[in-house]
Structure formats: structure tokens, C-alpha cells
Amino acid sequence: MSIFSEVPQAPPVAVFKLTADFREDSHPQKVNLGVGAYRTDDCLPWVLPVVKKVERLIVEDGSLNHEYLPILGLPEFRSASSKVALGDDSAAIQENRVGGVQALGGTGALRIGAEFLRRWYNGVNNTATPVYVSAPTWENHNAVFADAGFKDIRPYHYWDAAKRGLDLSGLLDDLEKAPEHSIFVLHACAHNPTGTDPNQEEWKKIAEIMKRRNLFVFFDSAYQGFASGSLDKDAWAIRYFVSEGFELFVAQSFSKNFGLYNERVGNLTVVARDNENLTRILSQMEKIVRTTWSNPPSQGARIVSKTLNCPELFAEWKDNVKTMADRVLLMRDQLKAKLQALGTPGTWDHITQQIGMFSFTGLNPKQVEYMIKEKHVYLMASGRINMCGLTTKNIDYIAQSIHDAVTKVQ
After folding, report:
1. Is 0.90 topped by the overall pTM?
2. Is 348 a catalytic residue?
3. Distance CA 355, CA 194 (A)
4. Angle CA(14)–CA(15)–CA(21) in degrees, nearest 5?
5. How far apart are CA 331 and CA 41, in angstroms?
6. CB of 217 closer than 8 Å to CB of 246
């Protein structure tokens, strides 16, 4: 009898199960709209040209070796990452109250931040502090904070299914009613899974309530630059909150905007009240990292660091990012136009009103099941699709499939 005989089988991770099912499908017109990664118009992963260039520079740099990085990560990577998030002219950076922790992707940054908050936010061992995540949100948000030890994870209103847009009144009401010092996980841009973001005036209303009610802001920034094509536009909310005097965390991912998915390059930017507070915060985060992964890997961080710290490479990277963002925007325009041309019931304006990699189509679970089983178009049960999965070659088939799902399945 095995000592592990009572271990239950865990359910598969939905998005990876969807990809596995897609791979096993032999249908010639199959399409994968589930995976959260950029694809070219040939439906292939894209290694950014600037990344290829920097990889060659690293190979040819005889001064590099494979010694351990510092526990908190490559210093020039951490500082450059925080600067990208907060801006060149950030007063917080100039006042020396911003620090970074290199992490294993955006997920690692979230986990280190969550672990720190559970231990040290507003007192020691805050398992009962409410953590609010949007309804819906990226599925890992709940699990990351739960595994860090938080016992009270709550949804806040975000998606209005009827109007297929932001439920601002519900969101603001939840902010007003949340206990003081609650933690709110906010998507900096390109909300996953809805693709629906507050506009600048709405962000100001959110910030006003959060400041007045002493609520903690934890931004998840997975798509900076990738959403609109502009690094500055996509970081507007973060920078506004910092300008309003918030102490906050920002979990940054470079998977999407650098195409470095398997390198797991992330950074946790910490904005503290002053340098003395920052020093103490980072000292505790160093202890958490030491017992989690001890030291971070160097390759991905060096690629990002060299790119962000060289003006010529930085400019080239921004062009690469805009190329990806523009293709997504083009697919949004074309899908909406084709659905309207087909006379597909309902309004499809939300396709172009949303932003970033994902679109919340509004398809219900039965329609999703029809898409997968009858049309071999794979998407999440929520109706979320990855706009990068659409190409000029398959968009007509996808539009017709959505039309058929909406008209044949209620």
C-alpha cells in the first residue's frame, strides 16, 4: 500500500487541457483560440527580432558567466523594469522609494507579493485580510493568494454581461463597502479575461475611493505595450496611482511583450512611502525568495535588461511590441466587420471596444461547446478567445462558426 494512495487526482488546468485536446484533434480546420500567447498571421510563435539580436550579444559577451545572481535578482533588470512601469520622470524613483524583486514570471511576482502581504501587511500574519479579485479574473489570482495563506478572497463587480462592458457602478460600490485596508488586485491594462479596461476618468474615481478608504493596490501588469502599442498609455493607471501617493505593488510580466514565455521573466515593483520603509520591505522579500527559489535565473533577465538599458535596442523593442499590438487590433476590426456582414444576432461593438490579447465574446457555455465539438474551434468555457489565434486565413471560418453557434444554440 503506497503512502500516497489517498492522494486525489487533481483536475487538469483548463487552458492546458484545452490545448491538449486541440493537439489531438485531426480536423483540417481546427483553431486554438484558448492559449494565452502571441501568434503570427501564420499562427506561429514569434521570436522578436530584438530578442534574437540581444541573444547574440549575450553569447558573444566574454565577460558573462553562470555565477548566482543576487537573491533579489539582476540589479540593472530590476531598476529598468520598475522604470518602464513607472516612467522615466517618476518622482517615486527620484525619491529612492522604489525597488524591485526579480521573479519567475508575473505569477512569481504575484506570489512573492502575496506571501509578503500575508506575513507583514498591516500587522503580522494577515490571513483574514480580505483580498478582492475581479469577477471574472485570471484563474490563477485566486489560487496564488489562497496558497499564500489568505482565507478571505472575495470577488468585486467588474463585468456587466448585459452591456458587455465594465460594471463601474458595481465596482465603485464594492470599493466603498470593502473593509478598510482590504487588498485589491487590479489589472493594469488589457484585463484578463474580458479585455475591458476603465478609462482614465474611471480610474480616477477608483483611485479616489481607494485612497479615502485606505485600500491597498496590487497591480497585475502582464501586457504593458502589448495592449495599445504604447508603453506609456498601458501604464497610465499605475502611474496615476503612484502620483496620488499610494504605496503599492506591481507584478510585471515580460512573457507577452518580449515573447519570453518559457524564460519566466517577471519583476515585482514595490513603491513605498520612503527609502527606510523600502529597505525593510526588500529585506523581508529577500528572506521569502531565499526559501522559494533562492536565486533567479539570468538569461531572460539579461535579455530584458540589455534591451531596456540601450536606447537603440529599446526603440527597436517598442517597434516590435507595436507590431504585435497592431495585428491584434486589426483582427478585432476584421472579426467585428465579418460578424456584422453575416448579420450575426446581437451587438458586436465590444469586440473593438475591448483591448489586448483577449476578448470576452459573450458566447455562453453551450455555444462554446458547439464551437469545440462541431466547428473544432477551441476556446475557454467562459467564451474568452485569444485574438492572436485569428489570422487572415482562418478568420472567415471563425466568424461563420460564431454566427452558427449564436443562431443555432441558445
Report:
1. yes
2. no
3. 9
4. 90
5. 10
6. yes
Pairing mode, if any, of strands 183-187 and 165-166? unpaired
Residue 138 appears among annotated catalytic residues: yes
Nearest to 141 by CA among 130, 152, 132, 128: 132
Cβ atoms 362, 346 nearer than 8 A: yes
Instruction: Look up residue 228 and give its three cell numbers.
Output: 495599445
What is the Cα–Cα distance from 86 to 83, expressed in whole angstroms? 5
**How many Å apart are CA 209 and CA 188, to the nearest integer?**
17
Q: What is the secondary structure of 111-159 as a DSSP string?
A: HHHHHHHHHHTTSS--TTS-EEEEES--THHHHHHHHTT---EEEEE-E
Q: Which three cell numbers stand for residue 39?
A: 501568434
Q: Are 150 and 118 in contact (CB under 8 A)?
A: yes
CA distances, 279 to each of 70, 115, 266, 286 (Å): 16, 17, 20, 11
Within 8 A by CB and 6+ apart from 224, the residues are 84, 85, 188, 189, 231, 234, 235, 252, 257
- Cα(247)–Cα(245) distance, integer angstroms: 7
**Catalytic site residue 256?**
yes
pLDDT in tens, the chain (410 residues): 999 999 999 998 888 899 899 999 999 999 999 888 899 999 888 999 999 999 999 999 999 999 999 999 999 999 999 999 999 999 999 999 999 999 999 999 999 999 999 999 987 788 999 999 999 999 899 999 999 999 999 999 999 988 889 999 999 999 999 999 999 999 999 999 999 999 999 999 999 999 999 999 999 999 999 888 999 999 999 999 999 999 999 999 999 999 999 999 999 999 999 999 999 999 999 999 999 999 999 999 999 999 999 999 999 999 999 999 999 999 999 999 999 999 999 889 999 999 989 999 989 999 999 999 999 999 999 999 999 999 999 999 999 999 999 999 98
| Active-site entry in 30, 46, 138, 375 | 138
- Catalytic one among 30, 256, 338, 375? 256
Cα–Cα nearest to 35, from 388, 398, 395, 401: 388
12: exposed, middle or buried (C-beta count within 10 Å: 0-12, 13-18, 19+)?
exposed
